[in-house]
Amino acid sequence: MESLAGKEIDKIIGKRFKFRGRGPEEFDCLGAVIYLTDKIFGIKLVDPFDSKLQGSILNRIAKFRAQYTPIDPKRKLECGDVLYHQRKTNKFEHHVVFVENKRWGVMVGEETGVCRLQLSRIRKNKNICSYRLKSQW
Fold first, then answer.
1. Which of 33, 45, 70, 122 is most exposed, with minimal Cβ within 10 Å?
2. C-alpha span between 96 and 86 (Å, rounded)
3. Could you tell me the pTM of the whole model?
């Protein structure tokens, strides 16, 4: 699985950031998670920002989150796990990181676009939440 993940991730490294970008040329953090989950696992996640879906945005976000179960951030991470990392700077920021393997994840930044990130850089943070797809549980 990791070799397939690496190949799919390599295809999008360096792609531009675009708010609500869903690929394959532009991504935001949620778009990268949705895209990679489909390409690597063949699982089509509910996109809470899909205008074709009915219900309020809060209900659609709840449907997206219902696809995941929280896990202990200190637990061994697996390919496809998602880390939600908050940090406070001069503006409130968050990053959603798609875990590639035990050392690397993928994030999307406004300046960097899609890039790899060493997980050790964020795992020490106290404001981190970890999730695993229920279908992978």
1. 70
2. 9
3. 0.89
Q: What domains can you pick out in the chain, each with its CATH number?
A: 2-136 (3.90.1720.10)
Question: Residues 96-114: pLDDT tens digits?
Answer: 899 999 899 999 999 999 9
The secondary structure of the chain, three-state, reads CHHHHHHHHHHHCCCEECCCCECCCEECHHHHHHHHHHHHHCCCCCCCCCCCCCCCHHHHHHHHHCCEEEECCCCCCCCCCEEEEEEECCCEEEEEEEECCCCEEEEEECCCEEEEEECHHHHCCCCEEEEEEHHHC
Residues of the chain with pLDDT under 50: none
